[in-house]
C-alpha cells in the first residue's frame, strides 16, 4: 500500500519522460499517452483512497521512505512520503481534475503542432504537484514546489512565438522566485531551530521553539504562499499567466497549483497556531487579496483575466480561512476543493467559448452565445451559480462557512474580516453575473477577426464537453455532499484539528446576509449589463474602473518601486564593481606581476649567489630557532 | 640495553675494544625492497661491463622494471604482513625503520620510479642518429660537448645505458632516506641518492652545456647543504651522545639523562640541540626545494634531461619530505614550540615566492620548477600540523603530486622543434588546435597543479589545508589559499595559451612517442583523475600508514 504513494508520483513523471524524450514518433499518439498516465495516477489515487477509507479515522496515514537522498553528517534528507487525509484530498483533486483536463486538452490542442510536448509538460506538472502534496518533509516539498513552478513557466510560455506569452512566463517565474526564497529561508530556519525539516518532528515540536522564531518561519511560509497562490503583494503574475493555453489556466492557475499556498499554510498549521502575529499577517493578506482580486475581476473585459481575478479573490478566501486557525482550516480546504471544481469548469467553459469564437477573448465581442453553445452555457452557468454561492450549490456551503468562521474570529478583527468576506461575496456576485451576461446573453456583438471572418460559434467536441459536464456535476453537488453530516469536517479533523469559534452573529444571520448581498450584486450587474445594450468598445469609465483595468496599478507600482529601484541598485553595483573591485583586483595582479619581475632577478644564475642565499637562510633559520627559545 | 646504545658503541668504541663488536642483526626480508633495488643496480653495472652494446638497452630496461616491480611487491608484502601497523619496528639494529610511513613512501617512490624508467627508455622522440634510435641522454657523457669525441660517439651510435643503474642507485638511496632511523643512515642515504642524480643531470643529449652547468650547480650546492646537514648531525650527537632518532628524542624529553659519559660536558646543552636541529632541517629543506634553499631548483630542472627532471621532481620530493616528517615527528616533537614558528615562516615564504616568481616565467620547465617550490610550501603546511591527519595528508599529497609532476614533464618531452624540446612558452601557443589530445592531457595536469576539484591536486590540497587548519595553523592556510590563487593564474594562463591563441606558423611539432612514454602519461592522467574523483580510499590508506615507529 505504502509503495503506491511513490508510484503516484512516478506514473506522470514517467509519462513526461516518455513524451519529452520520445521524439516525433509520439506526435500523433502523444495526447492519449499523456492522458493515460494521468488516468493511471488517478487510478492509483483511487486505490489509496479506498485503502484509507477502510481504516479507522485516527489511523488514516501512510508513511513510506523511498530512499535516503542527502545523508551528510547531521543533515538528513530522505525522499519519503506521507499520505494523510489532507494530502489524500489534494491527491484526488489533482489527479481527478488533472485527468479531466488532459482529456479536454486532447480536443483543445488537437491542431497544435507541439501538442506532444504540451502533454509532456502537463504530466510533469502532475508529477511535481503530487510530489508537493505527498512529501513528508519540507525539503522534498520544496522540490515539488519548484517543479510546479517550472511546469507553470513552461506552460505559460508554451506559445513562445508570442512575445506576450514569453514575457508572461518570465514574469511568473521571477515573481515566484521571490516567494520561493521565502520557502527556502523558512526551511533553513526550521533546520537551525529543530535540526530537521521533516513534518513530523517539526510540527510536533513547534511549540518548543520561541514565538519570535515561529513568527519568522510563519512569515516566510506566508511569503512563499503569496508567490505561488498569487496573493497580494506577489499577485501580479497571475493575470499575465492567462497567456498560456486555457487548459493550463484551468488546471494550474485555477484548480491546483495556485492552491499550493493554502496547502502549505494548512500543513504548517502547528507553526501558525503558535505564532498569532503570523496568523494576523495571513488573514490580512487573505482579506486584502479577496477584495483586490474581486475588484480587478469587475473591470476586465478579457474573459480569462476576469476569471483570473476571481481565482485570486477565491484563494484570498481560502488564505483568510487558513489564517483563522483551527476554526478555518477545514473550510479553507473545503472551499479549495469546491473551487477546484467550479473554477476549472468555468475556465474550461471559457476555453470552449474561445474555441468557438476564433480565439476571441474580449467579452464585449461575445453576446448571445447560449443558443449556439448549449452544453457550454449550461455547464458554465452551473459553475457560475456555484461560485456566487447560489443556495444548494457547492460554493454556497463552502463560502458561507468561511464567512461564518471569519465572524467567529471574534472582536473587532472578526467584524472587519467578516465584513470583508461579505463585501467580497457581493462583488463576486457582481462580476460573475457580468461575465455571464456579457458572454451568453444580450445582443450578438461578434466582430470579424484579423482575417475578416465573422466567427461561427459551435459546440465543442465531446472530449471537451465531457470534462465540462463532469466538473459541472461536481460544482453542483460537492459542497452539499461534503456538508451532509459534516462528513468533510470529520474526514479532515484528525489532521487539521477543528474548533468552533464564538460568533457574535448567528449562522442563520450570516447566511441571510450573504443572500442579501448576493442579490444586490446580481441586481447591480443586471442593471448595468442586462437591461442596457453593451458597447463593443469599453467606455472610459471611472477612475476606479480604469485603475482596476490596470490591475489596480500593480505593475506600475512594481515598475516604479522594484524595477527602477533595482536598476539604480544594479547600476551602482556595476559602478562599484568596475571602479573599486576591479581596481583592487587589477591592482593586486599588477603588483604581483611587478613583485615577480623583481624577485626573479635574484635568480641570477651564479652558484655563488645561490650559496650565499643558502648560507643566509641557514643563519636566519638558526637565529630564529634560538630566538624562539629566548622569548 | 637498547639498540641505540649498541649502534652507538659500533661507531665510537670499536677502536678501544675490537673483540667486543657484536655481530649486527640484519632483518634481510624486511629490508628487501632496498636490497632488491640496490642489487639490481649492481647487476646493471655488470651488464654494462659484460654484455655487448646492442643488447644493453633492452637488458637494462628489463632489469630495472623487474627490480622496481619486485621491490614494490616486497613493499606490499611487508605492508600486508603487518609491518605497517602492528609489527612496525626499527630494523637493522635500529638504523632503518620499517613502519607505515616508510612503507607508504617506499611504495610511492617505487611506483613513480617505475613510471619514470619508462620515460628514460623513450627512444622515438629524437630522429634516429645514423640509423640507430637515440634517447634523451648524451651519446657519451665524458665527451666534450661539440668536440670530436662526441661526434665520434654519436656516429658510433653510443647510448648512455648507464642511466638505468644510476636511477636504481638513486632509488635505493631514496628508499632508505625516509626510513632512516638514525642520523648517519640519513646522511648516507642522502649521498647515495644525490650523487647519481648529479651525474644524471649532466647527461642531456641536447643543450649539453646547459645540462652540465646544471649538474655542477646542483653538485656544488648539494655538497654545500650536505656539509650543513653533517655539521648538524655532529652537533646533535654532541647534545645527545647518540645519533639514533629515538635516543635523541629520549634526551630531548628528559627521560634519559646521559648516554655517553665521555660527552658529559655537552650532553643536554640546548644550544647544540637547537643549532644542530636547524642545520639538519636545512639540509632536508634544501632537498625538497623550500625557500630560501630553493635556488638550485629552476636551473637544475631546466638544464637536466627532462625525464631526469620529472624523476627528480617526483621521487626526490617524496623521499625528502618523508625524511623531514620522520625527523620532525620522531626526533624533535619535544621541540615543537621551537621549530614550528620557524617552519611557519619557511612554509609561508616558500608558498609565496614559488607562486609569485612563477608568474613571470617564460620557460615551461622553469615554470614547473617554481610550481614545485610553491607545492613544497603547501606540503610544508601539512607537515607543520603535527597531527596524525597532518602525516596522512602529506603522504597523500606526495603520492598525488608525484604522478602529476611526472606526467607533466613527460608531456614536455613530446613538444619539440628542430632544437629538441620546445620549452619556451611562446612556442606552446595554439598547441590545443594542432594537438588537442596532448594539450588536453597537459591541461589536466595543470588543473591538478592548480588544485581544481575532480583532480588529485584538489583532494591533496584540501587534505593538507584541513590538517593545517585543525592543527592550529589557520594563518598558514590563508596564505596557502592566496598562493593557490596566484598559482592558478599561471597554470590557467598556459591552458589559455594552448587553447585560445592562434598557432604560430613555424611552431613546434608534437612527436609521437613509443608506448613507454604514452603509458607513463596515461598512468599520470589515470592516477590524477582517480585520486581526484575517489580520494577517500587512498586517504584512508595514508591514514592507516600515518604512525611512525619509535
TrEMBL record, chain A:
The principal location of this protein is membrane
The record's section on Pfam families has:
Proton_antipo_M, Proton_antipo_N
Query: Which residue range or ranges hold the NADH:quinone oxidoreductase/Mrp antiporter transmembrane domain?
Result: 135-417
Q: Could you list this entry's UniProt keywords, alphabetically sorted.
A: Membrane, Transmembrane, Transmembrane helix
- Residues spanning the membrane: 6-23, 35-53, 86-106, 118-135, 181-202, 214-234, 246-266, 278-299, 315-334, 377-397, 417-442, 463-484, 504-527, 609-628
Membrane-related topology note: Multi-pass membrane protein
Any idea where the NADH-Ubiquinone oxidoreductase (complex I) chain 5 N-terminal domain is?
Answer: 69-119
Compartments where found? Endomembrane system; Membrane
What is the protein name for this chain? NADH-quinone oxidoreductase subunit L
* Protein species of origin: Streptomyces hiroshimensis
UniProtKB/TrEMBL annotation, chain B:
This chain belongs to the protein called: NADH-quinone oxidoreductase subunit N
This chain is encoded by the gene named nuoN
Membrane topology recorded in Swiss-Prot or TrEMBL: Multi-pass membrane protein
- The domain of life is Bacteria
Ranges annotated as spanning the membrane: 32-51, 63-83, 103-121, 163-180, 186-204, 216-240, 271-296, 308-329, 341-360, 367-388, 394-415, 436-455, 475-500, 512-534
Q: Spell out the HAMAP family in the cross-references.
A: NDH1_NuoN_1 (MF_00445)
Q: What family is reported?
A: Belongs to the complex I subunit 2 family.
Function summary: NDH-1 shuttles electrons from NADH, via FMN and iron-sulfur (Fe-S) centers, to quinones in the respiratory chain. The immediate electron acceptor for the enzyme in this species is believed to be a menaquinone. Couples the redox reaction to proton translocation (for every two electrons transferred, four hydrogen ions are translocated across the cytoplasmic membrane), and thus conserves the redox energy in a proton gradient.
Residues annotated as signal peptide: none
Provide the E.C. number(s) assigned to this enzyme.
Answer: 7.1.1.-
Q: What is the reaction catalyzed?
A: a quinone + NADH + 5 H(+)(in) = a quinol + NAD(+) + 4 H(+)(out)
Keyword set, alphabetical order: Cell membrane, Membrane, NAD, Quinone, Translocase, Transmembrane, Transmembrane helix, Transport
**What binding partners and quaternary form does the record give?**
NDH-1 is composed of 14 different subunits. Subunits NuoA, H, J, K, L, M, N constitute the membrane sector of the complex.
Amino acid at each position: 500500500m505504502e509503495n503506491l504513494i511513490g508510484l503516484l508520483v512516478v506514473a506522470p513523471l514517467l509519462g513526461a519522460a516518455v513524451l519529452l524524450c520520445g521524439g516525433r514518433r509520439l506526435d500523433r499518439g502523444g495526447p492519449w499517452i499523456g492522458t493515460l498516465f494521468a488516468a493511471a495516477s488517478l487510478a492509483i489515487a483511487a486505490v489509496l483512497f479506498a485503502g484509507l477509507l477502510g481504516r479507522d479515522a485516527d489511523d488514516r496515514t501512510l508513511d513510506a521512505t523511498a530512499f535516503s537522498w542527502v545523508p551528510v553528517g547531521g543533515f538528513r534528507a530522505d525522499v519519503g512520503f506521507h499520505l494523510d487525509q489532507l494530502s489524500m484530498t489534494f491527491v484526488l483533486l489533482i489527479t481527478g481534475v488533472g485527468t479531466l483536463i488532459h482529456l479536454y486538452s486532447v480536443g483543445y490542442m488537437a491542431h497544435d503542432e507541439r501538442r506532444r510536448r504540451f502533454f509532456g509538460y502537463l504530466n510533469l506538472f502532475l508529477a511535481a504537484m503530487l510530489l508537493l502534496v505527498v512529501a513528508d518533509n519540507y525539503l522534498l516539498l520544496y522540490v515539488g514546489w519548484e517543479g510546479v513552478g517550472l511546469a507553470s513557466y513552461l506552460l505559460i510560455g508554451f506559445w513562445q512565438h508570442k512575445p506576450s506569452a514569453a514575457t508572461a512566463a518570465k514574469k511568473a517565474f521571477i515573481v515566484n522566485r521571490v516567494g520561493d526564497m521565502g520557502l527556502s529561508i523558512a526551511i533553513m530556519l526550521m533546520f537551525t531551530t529543530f535540526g530537521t525539516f521533516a513534518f513530523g518532528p517539526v510540527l510536533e515540536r513547534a511549540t518548543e521553539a520561541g514565538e519570535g522564531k515561529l513568527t519568522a518561519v510563519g512569515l516566510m511560509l506566508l511569503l512563499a504562499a503569496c508567490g505561488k497562490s498569487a496573493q497580494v503583494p506577489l499577485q501580479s503574475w497571475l493575470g499575465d499567466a492567462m497567456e498560456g493555453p486555457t487548459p493550463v489556466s484551468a488546471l494550474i492557475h485555477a484548480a491546483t497549483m495556485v492552491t499550493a499556498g493554502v496547502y502549505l499554510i494548512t500543513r504548517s498549521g502547528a507553526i501558525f497556531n503558535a505564532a498569532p502575529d503570523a496568523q494576523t499577517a495571513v488573514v490580512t493578506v487573505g482579506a486584502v487579496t479577496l477584495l483586490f482580486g474581486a475588484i480587478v475581476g469587475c473591470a476586465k473585459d478579457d474573459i480569462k483575466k476576469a476569471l483570473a481575478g476571481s481565482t485570486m479573490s477565491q484563494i484570498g478566501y481560502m488564505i483568510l480561512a487558513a489564517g483563522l486557525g483551527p476554526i478555518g482550516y477545514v473550510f479553507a480546504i473545503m472551499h479549495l476543493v469546491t473551487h477546484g471544481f467550479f473554477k476549472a469548469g468555468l475556465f474550461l467553459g471559457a476555453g470552449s467559448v474561445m474555441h468557438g469564437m476564433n480565439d476571441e477573448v474580449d467579452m464585449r465581442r461575445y453576446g448571445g452565445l447560449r443558443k449556439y453553445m448549449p452544453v457550454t452555457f449550461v455547464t458554465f452557468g452551473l459553475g457560475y451559480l456555484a461560485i456566487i454561492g447560489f443556495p444548494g450549490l457547492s460554493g454556497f456551503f463552502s463560502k458561507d462557512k468561511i464567512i461564518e468562521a471569519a465572524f467567529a474570529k471574534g472582536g473587532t478583527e472578526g467584524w472587519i474580516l467578516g465584513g470583508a468576506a461579505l463585501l467580497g461575496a457581493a462583488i463576486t456576485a457582481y462580476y460573475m453575473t457580468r461575465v455571464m451576461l456579457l458572454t451568453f446573453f444580450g445582443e450578438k456583438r461578434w466582430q470579424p477577426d484579423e482575417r475578416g471572418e465573422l466567427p461561427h460559434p459551435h459546440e465543442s467536441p465531446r472530449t471537451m464537453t465531457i470534462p465540462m459536464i463532469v466538473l459541472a456535476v461536481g460544482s453542483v453537488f460537492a459542497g452539499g455532499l461534503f456538508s451532509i453530516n459534516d462528513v468533510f469536517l470529520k474526514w479532515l479533523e484528525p489532521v487539521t484539528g477543528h474548533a468552533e469559534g464564538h460568533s457574535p452573529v448567528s449562522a442563520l444571520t450570516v447566511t441571510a446576509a450573504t443572500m442579501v448581498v448576493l442579490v444586490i450584486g446580481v441586481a447591480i450587474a443586471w442593471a448595468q449589463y442586462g437591461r442596457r445594450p453593451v458597447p463593443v468598445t469599453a467606455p472610459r469609465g471611472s477612475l476606479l474602473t480604469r485603475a482596476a483595468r490596470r490591475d489596480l496599478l500593480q505593475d506600475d507600482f512594481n515598475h516604479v518601486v522594484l524595477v527602477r529601484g533595482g536598476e539604480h541598485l544594479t547600476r551602482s553595483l556595476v559602478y562599484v564593481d568596475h571602479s573599486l573591485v576591479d581596481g583592487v583586483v587589477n591592482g593586486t595582479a599588477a603588483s604581483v606581476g611587478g613583485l615577480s619581475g623583481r624577485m626573479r632577478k635574484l635568480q641570477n644564475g651564479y652558484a655563488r649567489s645561490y650559496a650565499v642565499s643558502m648560507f643566509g637562510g641557514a643563519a636566519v633559520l638558526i637565529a630564529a630557532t634560538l630566538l624562539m627559545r629566548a622569548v | 640495553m637498547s639498540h641505540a646504545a649498541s649502534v652507538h658503541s659500533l661507531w665510537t668504541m670499536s677502536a678501544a675494544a675490537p673483540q667486543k663488536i657484536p655481530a649486527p642483526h640484519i632483518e634481510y626480508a624486511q629490508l628487501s625492497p632496498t636490497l632488491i633495488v640496490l642489487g639490481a643496480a649492481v647487476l646493471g653495472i655488470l651488464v654494462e661491463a659484460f654484455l655487448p652494446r646492442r643488447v644493453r638497452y633492452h637488458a637494462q630496461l628489463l632489469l630495472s622494471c623487474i627490480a622496481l616491480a619486485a621491490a614494490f611487491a616486497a613493499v606490499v608484502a611487508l605492508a600486508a604482513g603487518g609491518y605497517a601497523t602492528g609489527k612496525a619496528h626499527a630494523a637493522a639494529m635500529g638504523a632503518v625503520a620499517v613502519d607505515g610511513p616508510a612503507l607508504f613512501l617506499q611504495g610511492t617512490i617505487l611506483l613513480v620510479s617505475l613510471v619514470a624508467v619508462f620515460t628514460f627508455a623513450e627512444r622515438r622522440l629524437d630522429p634516429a642518429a645514423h640509423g640507430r634510435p637515440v634517447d634523451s641522454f648524451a651519446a657519451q657523457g665524458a665527451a666534450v660537448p661539440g668536440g670530436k669525441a662526441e661526434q665520434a660517439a654519436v656516429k658510433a651510435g653510443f647510448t648512455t645505458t648507464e642511466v638505468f643503474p644510476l636511477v636504481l642507485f638513486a632509488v635505493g638511496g631514496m628508499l632508505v632516506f625516509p626510513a632512516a632511523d638514525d642520523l648517519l643512515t640519513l646522511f648516507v642515504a642522502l649521498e647515495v641518492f644525490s650523487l647519481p642524480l648529479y651525474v644524471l643531470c649532466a647527461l642531456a643529449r641536447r643543450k649539453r652545456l646547459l645540462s652540465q652547468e646544471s649538474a655542477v650547480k646542483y653538485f656544488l650546492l648539494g655538497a654545500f647543504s650536505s656539509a650543513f646537514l653533517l655539521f648538524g648531525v655532529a652537533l646533535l650527537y654532541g647534545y645527545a651522545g647518540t645519533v639514533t632518532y629515538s635516543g635523541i628524542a629520549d634526551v630531548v624529553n628528559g627521560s634519559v639523562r646521559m648516554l655517553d659519559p665521555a660527552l658529559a660536558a655537552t650532553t643536554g646543552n640546548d644550544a647544540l640541540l637547537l643549532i644542530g636541529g636547524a642545520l639538519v632541517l636545512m639540509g632536508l629543506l634544501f632537498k625538497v626545494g623550500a625557500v630560501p634553499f630553493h635556488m638550485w631548483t629552476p636551473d637544475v630542472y631546466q638544464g637536466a634531461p627532462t625525464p631526469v627532471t620529472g624523476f627528480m621532481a617526483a621521487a626526490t620530493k617524496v623521499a625528502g619530505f618523508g625524511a623531514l616528517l620522520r625527523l620532525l615527528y620522531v626526533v624533535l616533537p619535544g621541540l615543537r614550540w621551537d621549530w614550528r614558528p620557524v617552519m611557519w615562516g619557511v612554509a609561508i615564504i616558500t608558498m609565496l615566492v614559488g607562486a609569485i616568481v612563477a608568474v613571470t616565467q617564460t620557460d615551461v620547465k622553469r615554470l614547473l620548477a617554481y610550481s614545485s617550490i610553491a607545492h613544497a610550501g603547501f606540503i610544508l603546511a601539512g607537515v607543520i600540523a603535527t597531527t596524525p591527519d597532518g602525516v596522512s595528508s602529506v603522504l597523500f599529497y606526495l603520492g598525488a603530486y608525484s604522478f602529476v609532476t611526472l606526467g607533466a614533464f613527460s608531456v614536455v618531452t613530446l613538444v619539440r622543434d628542430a632544437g629538441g624540446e620546445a620549452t619556451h612558452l611562446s612556442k606552446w601557443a595554439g598547441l590545443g588546435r594542432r594537438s588537442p589530445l596532448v594539450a588536453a592531457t597537459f591541461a589536466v595536469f595543470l588543473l591538478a597543479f592548480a588544485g581544481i576539484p575532480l583532480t588529485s591536486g584538489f583532494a591533496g590540497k584540501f587534505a593538507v589545508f584541513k590538517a593545517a587548519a585543525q592543527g592550529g595553523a589557520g594563518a598558514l592556510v590563508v596564505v596557502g589559499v592566496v598562493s593557490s590563487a596566484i598559482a592558478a593564474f599561471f597554470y590557467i594562463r598556459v591552458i589559455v595559451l594552448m587553447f585560445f591563441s592562434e598557432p604560430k606558423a613555424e611552431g613546434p611539432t608534437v612527436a609521437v612517442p613509443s608506448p613507454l612514454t604514452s603509458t607513463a602519461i596515461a598512468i599520470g592522467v589515470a592516477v590524477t583523475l582517480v585520486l581526484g574523483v575517489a580520494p577517500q580510499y587512498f586517504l584512508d590508506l595514508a591514514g592507516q600508514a600515518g604512525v611512525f615507529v619509535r
